[in-house]
Structure formats: structure tokens, C-alpha cells
Amino acid sequence: MNQLIKKEIENKQCYEVSKNQNIRIIDIFLIGPSMICLGILSLKYYLILSIILIIFGILTIYYNFDNYKKTNQLKNSKLHV
Fold first, then answer.
1. Residue 72 in 3-state DSSP?
2. Per-residue model confidence as pLDDT tens digits over 20-73
3. Would you give the distance in Å from CA 68 to the centre of its chain?
4. pLDDT confidence bin for 76, thresholds 50/70/90
5. Residue 70 dihedral angles phi and psi, to the nearest 5°
6. d(CA 77, CA 66)
7. Distance between CA atoms of residues 65 and 69, nearest Å
8. Which of 8, 20, 30, 74 has the highest count of CB atoms within 10 angstroms of its CB?
């Protein structure tokens, strides 16, 4: 009985991780680049806002890619144990 409950919890956690990973992929390939693009396009109008958008876009890509890698490594290490 305990093993069945434990397996169910692991399956639910795996589902949550894969859902979060999909959101990270969207952040890496859509949100971050969009922020950078908007920052570049608005450089001639709002300099400070443009710089902030570009920096946040780069940080969004970096942060989500780093978390994506760490989560994948953790998930893979649990699968091989």
C-alpha cells in the first residue's frame, strides 16, 4: 500500500515537472526573445525602458534555461536510480 501511494506521488510530481518544463521552454524561446526584440525596437524612443527590457529578456532566458537543465538532470538521475 505504501509503495502504491509513493508511486502515485512520484507520478504526480513528474507530471508537474513536465508541465513546468513546457512553460520554461516557452519562456526561453518566446518570452525572452520577445522582450529583447521589443527593447531593441524601442531604443530610439525610450532608452532606459529599452535597456531594462533587454536585460530582463536576457535574464529570463538565462534563468529559465538554467532551471530547465537542473530539472532535467534531477529527473534523469531519479529515473536511473
1. helix
2. 888 999 999 999 999 999 999 999 999 999 999 999 999 999 999 999 999 888
3. 6
4. confident
5. -60, -40
6. 17
7. 6
8. 20
